[in-house]
Amino acid sequence: MEKNPILEDLKKIAEAPFPYLRNRKKKTGEKILGYFCTNTPEEMIRGAGLLPVRLLGSKGSISLASRHLQSYSCSLVQSSLEGALKGELDFLDGTVFPHTCDSIQRLSDIWAGNMPFPFHWDLVLPVKLHTESARAYLIQELRRFREGLQGFIGRAVSDDDLRASIGLANENRSLLRECYRRRVENPGLFSGSEFFALVQTATFLPKEEHTSKLKELLAHPEREGPFPPGRARLFLAGSVCDQSSVLDLFRDSGGSIVGDDLCTGWRYFAEDVSWEGDPLEALADCFIRRVPCPCKYNP
């Protein structure tokens, strides 16, 4: 199969994001905020002129983190803390911890006590999403987050700043959805690890740069013909998948992934944010409207 240079480049970046981000920071000097979970409104971080980076853990054995965490903590929590304690995340200027699972919430306390990053924020999102009080509370919490970002950067984050960031994110999401649609029609177009790289790099590359790469990728002719007869079409259900090599096991075993509801996949780009009205209300409404993960409730 012909190799696509855009895909190869994005896969290379996705395989080693920390060195890439460290080198980028040296060149640009931009401030970088790490975050856990797609429930974090990255549009607000970008609107403040900062680069949002979703943290999906680091590779290697766990030694330092085991001094702070129970052994049953998930690999995302353990490996992220391990990478931070080893200095692999020294390019960060701060971290945002959304209210998700118990382990992430407790990781925030450990992180704050051991990491010297200038910015640390707990974004306490509602658990029940179907009430008016939940919406009102969520909007207030997003206002509090904006105030925290403004205090960190030393200037105001205007509604226009947020709308511009929302526009960039919406365009990027629409292109990811188009990649997803083409993959459903032709599962041979992207392997599991290739599509994972598309989504993962969207969570830490500047949106303008990533969008440009997606446009170039979509302009490239399709690389594979009709779906092979007898090959199983698979749909993945779950939450975080941070090991892309696992996804290609399905292909090597005679199946093709044609869809998913992972937060490292479809759930990340499924919903756009409205440009109309108050941008914080628009972000809140999108958060409430999206398909919830198990840490949230919406009937």
How would you describe this structure to a colleague?
By secondary structure, the chain is of the alpha/beta class. It is 50% helix and 10% strand. It contains 12 helices and 6 strands. The chain has helices spanning 5-15, 17-28, 42-47, 75-85, 102-114, 132-153, 159-185, 192-202, 207-218, 244-252, 266-269, 279-289; strands at residues 32-35, 51-54, 94-98, 119-123, 232-236, 255-260. The strands form 2 sheets. A 4-stranded parallel beta sheet has the order 2-1-3-4, with helices on both faces. The protein has a two-stranded parallel sheet with strand order 5-6. Strand 5, helix 10 (244-252) and strand 6 (255-260) form a beta-alpha-beta unit. Helix 1 (5-15) packs across helix 8, helix 7 (159-185) runs antiparallel to helix 8 (192-202) and helix 8 (192-202) runs antiparallel to helix 10 (244-252). The longest helix is centred in the middle third of the chain and has 27 residues, at 159-185. The protein is globular. The N and C termini lie far apart (45 Å). The mean pLDDT is 92.
Tags for this model:
single chain, globular, alpha/beta, two-stranded parallel sheet, 299 residues, four-stranded parallel sheet, 12 helices, 50% helix
**What is the 3D form?**
globular
Profile the largest sheet. Answer: 4 strands, parallel
Mean pLDDT: 92
- Gyration radius over CA: 19 Å
Number of strands: 6
Task: Kindly name the structural category.
Answer: alpha/beta
The number of helical elements comes to: 12
Distance between the termini: 45 Å
Return the string of H and E elements: HHEHEHEHEHHHHEHEHH
Q: Proportion of β residues?
A: 5-15%
Percent helix among the residues?
40-55%
| pLDDT < 50 runs, ≥5 residues | none
